[in-house]
Each structure stands twice: as structure tokens, then as C-alpha cells.
Queue: 3 jobs
Job 1
Amino acid sequence: MKFKSLLLGSAVAVVAVSGAQAADAPVVIYPEPVAEPMEYVRVCDVYGAGFFYIPGTETCLKIGGYVRYQIDWADNDDGWKKLARGSITLDARTETEYGTLGGFIEVRGDAYSGYQGINLEDPAYDPIDSAVASVFRGVYLQQAIISLGGLSMGLSDTLYDAGLSGEFDSGGGDLVHFMRYTYDAANGMYASLALEEADYDYDYTPNVVANVGLAQGWGTLNLWGAYDATAEEFGVKAIATMRAMDAISLELMGTYESGQNFYSVSHDGSSGGYEYSAGAYAKYDFSPRASFGLGGQYFMSNHLTGADDYAVGAVLDYAIVKDFNTKIAVNYFDGDSVDEGYLKGFVRFQRNF
């Protein structure tokens, strides 16, 4: 009996000790797997609406562009001419110790009447005009600009490229390779100096273009000067814009050229540029969505023929909805360079984004 009691007591003790040890043993809890956090695109409001941060960087990017469909007409045409254009822009900006580092690209694609593709190998195919269609058919680079602070370089319109707001005028200039520096003062004054290559002969001597301007509450005043190193001729231009009333704005332009050069103004019915030209444009805003403009430009002493010519035009702009605009333009060209004055115009639909 004593032996059985001793054996039973030992068994109870073993069970008790085992239970105590089990109670004291650490419990390992394995956490459930956690999903990787999603990296959403962040809005970048430093440079205005439409910019966002490229994931993993401090670079802000804006994607934009437009789609345009235009129907043209002229007195000497046998029918309507059509243009379909698509433009895509990429605008990248980053802040650095030297100012904003920027990169801007614009790529365009055009298709005129009778052509549906995006590239054309046969230069003899000419649905409109060899001087225009052979250049502007297909997909092409319109702008490619690198900028840091006030310094910029790449491909874009010349610094001299400016005119009146109508569709009848000519201010001179075209696409160029360039290096440019712009100084922007805090009081509304600014100045730019550019070296430009506009020739196809790989000239070592660049053209030189300068601009000084003033922007105030009443409007703007700009003066340009350009020297064509190949032609060894120069041109100057002044443009003033002002708002006479809340709904009425006025623009004035005057140009002078020492001789025919890359920056010469041109008349639709002639070539060669003009020694002098003067123009004006007035616009009335019916509402934030609708406006009407009327203007003209007089061209004096063509460099090649001595002709005097003129152009007048009217433009009606209307925004159907936000970012979807229509434009109707009618222009008249006449003068010594043409046997008889003629009309040209177009209807344009454009969706911006």
C-alpha cells in the first residue's frame, strides 16, 4: 500500500511540474504577411496644374498636347484642303542649386488631304504644295529644349518669332538650333540673348538675336534685334500690347530690315522680305468663351521687287466647352506683288489637353 501511494504521488508531481513548465514556455506568434505599400503618383503643384512627380524621383512631369482638324479654302483652290495634326508635349522640371532644370519635348504628326499615313518616302507626292507638304507631312520634332535657370538650348522657334494675334500677319523667323540666356528682373523687365543656327551649311558663325521687354498691368512692350551672319543683314522689330478696356485689347507692330535675311517678314503673295512693315490688331471679348479680332499689316519696299503689299484679316474664336476650341479666320491679300487680290481662310477645331 505504501509503495502504491508513493508511486501515485510521484506521478502527480511529474504531471504538475510538466504543466507548470508548459505554462511558462514562450509562445511564438508568427505575424501575417503584410502587403507592400502602394506608391501612388503624387501631385506636384510647384509649377502649376497638371504636373506630377515621377515615382521614385523629385522630378515633376506634365504631359500635354492637342489634336487639331483644320479645313482651308482659298480663291485659287478647286476644293477644300484638310489638315489633321496631333501634338504631344512632355515638360520635366527639377529644382537644383542653380535653378530649375527643365526638359521640354514637342512631337507633331501631320496628315494633309489625300494622305493618311505618318511617313512618306516619295517626295514627288504633293497633295498641296512642295514647299509646304514635303516638310510638314509625317511625324517630326517641333521642339527639344534643355534649360537650367536662365540658360536654354536645343531646337525651337527663333527668339525673333513674334507677331500679331491674327492669322494674316508676318513677324519673321522659323525653327532654329539655339543657345539662349534670359534674365528676368523682379520689376517686370526681362532680356534675352541668343545664338542661333538657321542654315544648312554647318556655318561656324551663328546668327545673333536679342530681346528686351517690359510687362506691366497695362500691357507689354518688346523690342527685338536680329543679325543674319550668312546674309550679313539685320532686322529690328517692336511690338506693343495693351488692354484699352476690360473687353478690348490692342496690338501694334513695326519692323525694319537692312536687306533680305532669315528674319525677314513675308507677304502671302510674294517672297524676299520688306524694308518696312507696320501692323495693328484689335480684339473684343464678348465673353470668356467668345472673341472677335480684326487687323491688318502693310509691307513697304520688297527687297527683290520694290513692291508694296498689304494684308487684312478677321478671326472669330469660340470655346465650345473647356479645352475644345473653334476658330474661323478670313484673310485678304493684295498689293503690287499680285495681279488681283484674293481671299483665304480656314475653320479650325482643336482639343487641348
Job 2
Amino acid sequence: MSLAVVPHLAGRNMALAQEAPASPAPAPAASGPPSVAAYAQLPFVEGAKLSPDGLWITGLFAIGGSQRVVIISPFESDGLKQAMLPEDTEVSRLQWVGNNTVLVHLRAIRAIGDGDRAYVSRILSYDRSTGKFTRLLWDLGGQNASDVVYVPSDGSTKVLISGQNSIYMGNDFWPAVYSVDVTNGRRQIELTGRTDVFDWIADPSGVVRAGISTDVAKGVRTLLHRPKKGASFDRVSRAGFDNLEVPVLIRANENKAVVIRTVDSATTADAASKEKHDALLEIDVGTGAVLQTLYQAPDGTTIDGVRYDDAGNELLGVYLGGRSSEPLHWLDPDLDELQKAFEQSAKGRRARIVSLSANRLRMLVRIDKANEAGRLYYFDLADGKLRLFANLNSETNNKPAGKVEAMKYRARDGLEIEAIVTTPPGREAKNLPVVIMPHGGPWAHDTLDWDYWAQFVASRGYLVIQPNFRGSTGYGEAFERRGLGQMGFAMQDDVNDALIWAGKQGMADPKRACVVGASYGGYVAMWGAARDADLWRCSVSIAGVANLRREVNDFGDMLYGKRYREQWQNMTPDFQAVSPINFVDKIKAPMLLIHGKKDLTVDHGQSQSMFSKMKTAGKDVEFVSLPKADHFFTRTADREALLGAIEGFLKKHNPAD
């Protein structure tokens, strides 16, 4: 991957500083579905962020069939600069420090210690003016040295980064906090590491105020806090691993913090009836006492996270769960008013503010809908105009697309499940061939957002159902906990029940059903083919896990590797009993396996081993191994290979017509 600073990208479907209506022109008459290449087109930009002054944009831009980190100004047009990033790395995050520096967070698998391969994270600082990189804390000997706990809002260049200096249990294993100058990499220790503390939290003034102590053996975490720099840390609270209340913000120079808490709230005029609600609260750190309620979530929703300003020092909004679209509620009334104005301008589409300048006068706004990739606009409050910045997919925008809806069904035990359902364009949802598409994770959920996989499959004539089975995020803690111990059991039943429900509704023909999934969804596809062999005509596993014990043991040596193992053990009592590779003899339907050799999330060997075992057993199996593909298929060529293989396989084993 290379990084380029491009003040002007001529001829790449970008209209800069040019007024454009927020509502695109009507779609042309249909002339068949868009091609594989159209759906495989990378988004023009992902993860776009404005500099604090709002005059520069960074993001992952699609250039030459791959994603590159780019810094661009819509107001200047001088030359092009490029610099190479390390091979076999993934960019996990981009972050501005002032208006001249972008932190590039990298992730890779590297040999460390005695040669063991493990995930390693590091940061490159990129200087926009000179085009030069500076490595930050790259000489540290630990696994993680990329946790930025503080970025100044005043334009200064010293940040706080938490990093390990060893992979071996001891003093250097526990991360220290370093003050690092992003312009030259010079550093000094701000806070020495402390046994059992793996996470540090700074307040908006740059003082490390809290730490989270982890006792993996006992399964508990402890919140430590100090009132000011130089003071000692005191234990504030202690709870189970998933139950500790961690502040989302600590007030500078005060013993106050902001937390998300589930509370009782009156639901009748006489306050006699109580229900549970999520609330954003300001509390006294020492006692936990509520000082004020900043926001209370409405009925049927949860607070799943918060929206910060781009420096991470101020709370601007909350993300609400329990709804498939994950709406953002702005705490700032001015931003809330702007949001409503953008929505009105979008004319039936959805508008989202994706990035803001420090003074909140300039912003990037994405306007899209569930079946359209949409466009990115630049907005300046000075003139109040939305200017088209990027058409995110010029090949599919404004083309016929499948209708996307959130529907609910009952699992066999009565639990209500939400599914995202996409109907083929121009067809009625009646007795259609169907593809059940479980999401990855499993700690995730599908939403009413553009999904190029689902839209592609639907465009080929299939009803696509994406069930948010028990254990999925986004529907509250109780729903997520319903997945404990149920991986391969009730979680799998929920996927099957989506098919049964669609058949009873008359939408799908259950005899023409295939299961297609990626990552954890790939596991579901393999396990469904083995456990419920008579239910599926075919299955497609993309970067799926065939051997749960092997996947978990790959992460067993580090602190959070042990936590990772514990999470999976909580999901199923016996890895061997629900690992597809152990039940190849049960598989009847054809299976397609697709995996990239550059996958840093699920080892390519998972699919290779499954293919070898199925082939030896005489099963009908195909394996598409992509030498340059990563877990997320961030190259156009790999997406084309992925979608083309799925199309051909479905047409052969479950034809739509």
C-alpha cells in the first residue's frame, strides 16, 4: 500500500468545490443488472476525516484498484507526492494531529519474541508538508504500541501513546504511556507501566487520569482513578470482565466522569411504574453518584456508544442501538439542527455528518440510502452550500437496486429476531430462491446500510436474508447474552429459522436455499452444511473458521489472547463438538470456500484444511485461494474474483431462474 498527497484528483469521478444537488437525478431505464465489476468497485473513499481547520481531507481512497491513504485539498492543485507503507500491513485508523500531520495506525502479523507470529500494531506519522514518514515507538518490543490516549486540540504536536515494551509477562509487558512528538518521534515516559493495567484513559487536558486493571484468572477488571497528575491511583470499582463501568469521558480538573448506565426511569405520570433505560450520566468518580443526566435513550433503544469530536476530547452525540439503522443522536443542539436540515435536503435519503472541523463550521456529509452507496459532500456553514466531493460508487448509484427492509420473525423458542431483507430489483417477494447471509463477528449486526455483497446477490435474482441472530450486538445486553453457550446451537437455529419463516411467509422457496457468509458467517455456512445437511442446496464460506480450537489457540499467548479464548469458550462449551472440520462426513451439499492469503483476521489455513479434508472424503467442494486478498477484500481484483466465484457457484447449484 502506498500513501499519496493529492491536492487534485482530476478525472476520478470527483467534483470538488462544485455545487451539486443532494438528491441525484432519476435512475435510467433498466437494461439488466450492473456487472460484477460494478459491484466490485471500491468505494471512492472510506473513513474520510477533515483536518481541524476543515481545509484538508484524509481517507482511504480507491486508486488503481486498491486503497491508498490520501491527503487532499479541494482548494489547491499543485503536484503529487507518494510514499510507500510497509508490506503486508492493514490501515486500521487515520487520525489528524493539527492541520499538518496524520497518524496512520497499522496492523500486521509479525514474528516477535522467539519467533511466534502475532498481531502487532504500530503508528506512522505523516507530515503533509514534507511528505515524510516518522515511525512512532517502533523500537518497542511489545505487541501493541498504537493506543493513542490523547491528541491535543490546540494544534500542538505532542500526543500520548500507550505501548508495551515486551511480549513476556513482566514489568515491560504492561504498557507505559509515552509523550511523543509526532514531528520527529522524540519521546519521554509520561507514566510508567503498572502491573495488570492494560488500558489508560486521559482527560481532555492530556493528564492520564484512569487505568483499567485486568485479572484474567479471576475474570474481573478494576477501575483505577487519580484526581490529578502526580497523585496516586485509587481503586474506584471492580466488576466482571464485561460489567465494569468504564468512563467514556473524564472531565479535566474535576472528579467527574461521563458513563453509560442502565437506570430505572419513571414511565407514568405518577412515577409508579419503572422500566430500564440506558442513560448518559455525569457522575462523581469516587462515589459513582449521579450528578446529572445528559441524555436518556427512548423506549426500545440502547446507547451503544458515543460520538466524540475528531480529537476525542469532547462528547458530541450518542449512537443508539435496538434499531437496524443505528441512528446518531446529537447532544449539541446546533449539530442536531444541521442534521435535520441535511435530512430535509436529502429528500428521502439518509444524511450523516461523518467528520467535522474543530470549530464545527466545515464538515463532510454522506447522503445515501440502504440500497445506494451514495455520495460524500463538503459543507461550509459560511455559505450554507453542500458541494459534491465524491460519488462513492459511480457504477451502481442511480441504477436499479434491491429493496431493503428490516423485518422481524420469531425463533423456535419465541425469541424475536430482526433480519435485513433485500428483494431482487423489479421482482415481487414471492417464492424466490433465497440466500441466507449471516454476518461476521459474531459480535456485530447487519444494518440498513449499503451492502455490496447483499445487493450483488439480490441483483442476480435471489432474496437475501441477513438474520441478526441471538448474540448479535445492537439489541441490548440481554439479547447479546442470549448467545452465551449457543454458538453452533441456538445461534445456528436462528439462522435456520429465518429460512423457515421466509418460506411460511411465501417470500422464499425453502427448497432453493443456500447459505453464504464471511468470517463468523463463513463458519455458520460450513457448520450449517454439516449440522443441517438437508436444509441447504449449497453453502459458501468466505474466510470462515473451520476449526474453532485452532482459531482460538492462534491467539492464546497474549493477555487479550486469553480473553479472546475466554470469549469463545463462553460462546460454546465444546469447540470440537461444533467445529465443521470434524463433521465433513455429514456434508451433502456442494461447498465453495474463498480465502485470501493476506488475511490477518482468520488464517488462510482454516479454509485450506477444510478443503483438503472434504476433497479426501470425496465431497463436492471448490476452493478459490486469492494470493493478495486480505480479510476485507480491499482490492478491486479480489472483489471481482469473490463476486464472480459466488455468482458462478450459485448459478450452478441453485439457479435463480
Job 3
Amino acid sequence: MSVRGIRFGQNKMAEKRKELIELHWGEDLAALPLWDRRVDNGFSTVPRTLPYICRVLEHFAEKGKPLTQTYIALWCRMSDEGLIEIREKDALAYEAGFSGSRAVTTWASRMKVLAQAGFIDCRSGLSGDFHYTLMLHPLKVIKGKFEGNSQNDDFRKLVSRMSDVGASWE
């Protein structure tokens, strides 16, 4: 399908969703605080497959040391170019759910696992080993890790969700 055809289909679906919203919420809609990513600032775009990506991500975690919160905290800080400049490790540790005297150490251990698994690529800077962090395309990373192992249940569910939302490995 051409880019033009895809856009036409997306516009048609957007119109259908607007009609459904109007049908179900009608006059109440004006009083509801809806978020519009095209208008509101301070929001990030996330893949619709993110919950499935996070399930697969946990296959790379050590038992009792989940990676999802750290990954989501990074995603929320990522620029459109995929770069995160980590100047305040304490803030990222907090955003990832860690507190106390070992918060930054615990966060850094999760960052190392994410880097070793290939989900992020880091360069050192003034704030340490993770000052410059690139978020790598998670679907491409997962495809490389699970190629030839399509029997993994979380991987198969990710593939199914990708089909639902029109995502691809490329």
C-alpha cells in the first residue's frame, strides 16, 4: 500500500473514532479534559506495542530485578531523535521507581542490563557512563534476539499485537 493510501486509511479511522466519541459522550465531551498530542506539550509518542515490548524485555532481567520501569522512564525522556541526555541520575532513578541511598546504584545496574541486552547504547559524559543514551528500535532488537525462537509466548503475543496495529520489524 502506498503512503498516500495509508494516510487515507488513517484519516478515515480517525474520523470514525471522532464519530464514536461524539456518539457516546455528546454534550459531556466539552467538559472533559482530553489530551491531544498535536496541541499539548510535554508528552512523548510511544509505540502501541510498548506493553508487549516490556513483557519481552523482562526475559533479559535478572530474577527480582525488573527492567520495565527503567525503560519507561528513559522512553519518557527520549527526544524524537532517540537521545536522552542524563544530567541528573537521581531524577532518573526516582522516575524508575528507586529511592533511598542505593537508588542511583540500583538504577545504574538496570541501565547496564538494558545496554548489554542491546536496547540502549550509551556514551559517557560529565554525569557518568550513561550521560548520552540512545534508545534503539526495540522491535529490531527483539527480532534479532528471538530470530529462530518464535516459540516464546511473549514474543508471539508481540508479533500478534504488531499485526493488529500495523507495526513492522523495519
